[in-house]
Amino acid sequence: MSQAKAATASSGTKAAAPVAPKKTYISLLALTMMNVTMIAGIANDVQQAFYGLSSVTFFAIGALVFFIPTGLVAAELASGWGQRGGIFRWIGEGLGEGCAFLSLFILWFQTTIMFGSGMPSAAATIGFYTPNLDWAIKFAQHPSHTLVITLCWMAFYWFLAYLSTKGVKAFANLAKYGVLIGSIIPLTVMIILCIVWVLQGHKPNIEFTASALVPKWQGLPTLAMAAGVFFSYAGIEMNAAHIKQLEDPKDEYPKAIFLSMIICFLIFVVGTLIIAIVIPESQINLLYTLAQMFSELGATIGAPWLYMVFTWAGLFNLVANLVTNLAGPSFMLGQVARAGFMPPALQSNNKYGMPSRLIYFQMFFASIIALIFMLVPNIEGFVILITQAVTILYMFYYILMFITFIKLKYDQPYRPRSFKVPGGMFGAWLVTIVGIASCIFGIVLAFVPPAQLAQQVGSGTTYVTILAVLDGAVIVFALILYAISRKHNWVDPTNEFAPFTWQIEGLKKPGKVLSNISSDDMAAGQDPMGLPIKRPYHPNDTVESIAARIKAQGGTDEDVHNAIHPKHTPAPPRAKSAGPAPDPRINNIVLGAPVSATHSPIVTIPDSHPYYTLEEVEEMKKKWLTTATADADEALARSASKTIETPAQAAQSVAQAKTDSQSTDASTKTDDKPQSK
Questions:
Q1: Pick the CATH number of 22-485 from 2.70.70.10, 1.20.1740.10, 3.40.50.11540, 3.20.20.30
Q2: How far, rounded to the nearest angstrom, does the alpha carbon of residue 252 sit from its chain's CA centroid?
């Protein structure tokens, strides 16, 4: 009988294995390449090559007003709040659950539309995978059998969706090698062959003068060009979905951000300049200029067919881009779904820990969009409307991120961050204002009707109204879905999504706190989001006040460390306390962590702190240590009464502990009196 039970338990363990996959990590290089593939690619350089050397100015301005602000903000937010969820985690900490869910839904919707619109446009480029360049160009200009070709591309996209479900390690490797084969190696070859091309006596098609760096003012097209360059940098924060797959997220994620920024800038600038040098402005075409450029450069070494080699190489970059885009937003949405924000039917993970149902559902939705683009006649106006509507939503998404960043600077000023935007509060406000201004610029420009839509949508008022209705519908749908989720208990109790810090601190919504306890320490050992808080903290609990309370009760340095850093790792036997041991029930109520020998090793709390300067530590000590060193029993009772999540039984335990202590003191005094005859 016992053997049967053991066999059942064993089989149950095997069956549960797919739900809790083995922990895998991705390297700093892999995350960097995943960021690069989300943003940059040589195929994106053709559009900016129209503007010659002045495109460098556009790229530099775009980096200053959008790329650098978003990179800095994402790096600080990830270093302070590095738990699962990415953009949902950050915006939820600053603006609450509703805005967080809205931002994540916008990101998921934007990538889905991108997939759907990409399938039909790829149909015209099929000829460049053959060695006949002239035929490929003619086919791109006048494609045929587009429905059949689009269905083939659609099948390829579904295969990539399948690859996306094979786990973080699988698509991290695809991204790493895809960028290397599809962007880095071709760009290196372009540089070498361009030098050979010039040395052979060919004249560059652009002038390298200071005046050529100044963009020519052409009215609205110049503004449109600027906006297009600015937002070609979008997406640097998307891979925060995989931050927990890094071994040291708070150190490696900011490094990956800055390495990605450098590589992306080089791909954009160098690739654009080489195209502008080799191909005359009048001959630049979005569909086939890249192939023409590779053919021209290949001819310098007797290999005009080189374009075909790099077209196939570019396919690796396309695979990396699509797989990373598929896995990122759906991966974040899958984590959030299991925390109770989506129906159980969309929550399941496969054995690799990937939300396969959500990924396939996203690809199904993208396929519907692709078929609409293909089958509906005179759809150009509709495509432009959808593209502009998604642009507005995406800029709104970034505005929420910038607002979150500056709000957390005030709401959680002492929360440890391993990286901070340089310049203190001035630097924080500077990147926030510049970033929001760039987004508003993009939104305003998107509301200007393109000339090719004049006949299809009529007046500008009609165009603006259609955009407002489309964007409003997406926002309202997301908020309705969020409201429905709050009325149902969809929480998966086995999810690994930690509560927000303000939930752990007993607040109803994000607000001002003085805590300087790291979000990692507060989240350690907590039950998942959607379940009752296991270890509540007071909003103004600090490292110093917790240490003072424990010391006042006779606790050791190990007790202090275990309460502040409740990691579940075994510790060596601790030394015997010099004073009376604190009541573990009271410690559990007030500090959120029981005093136990099964935590981190003994660490003496120094006078300095890894996230603050000595001056900041002294200032915090002056602010909080005076109240923390008051009568220990009163401090404990007061903190327990302020802990919203503390059960009534726990409060009774505190009161009982005090009563027992008073009774003991009274009996001691009675015994000390001399007995009368």
A1: 1.20.1740.10
A2: 14
